[in-house]
Design brief:
Helix content: 25-40%
Number of domains: 1
Number of helices: 3
Strand order of the largest sheet: 2-5-4-3-6-7
Amino acid sequence: MKAYDIFSTDKGFFIGKKRVTGIYQTGRRIGIRNGTEKGDEFRLIRDYENKYDERAVKVIGRFGDAIGFIEAKANDDVAFYLDSGCECLGVVTDIDKTGATVGILLDVFCRCDADTMQKLSASYDEYMRSQTKL
């Protein structure tokens, strides 16, 4: 999804659907499986110390525990908005509890004022070009 596709909702600006990964590694798979339902909200924060992904975004549960991460191949826009000072939130839209791990799909929203979001949307493509040159 490109930054210009963003639209506002009652939860903030919708920026896309994102898959949560790393649930198996947290060691809390059963608790997440039993305690997560569609509509649940998770806070998203940057994980600057992640040695595997420089744009890592952690998914935080209601008790402040790490659930997993936004999938690395799709976290660049969320990292950008978090780095820019927006608050981001993920709402569970789909959950698959049948596999060895738990599959969670989130709708991701960013909360900031409309002027800030408009300015950030305009600079997102430039930001991504600069990141790919590194």
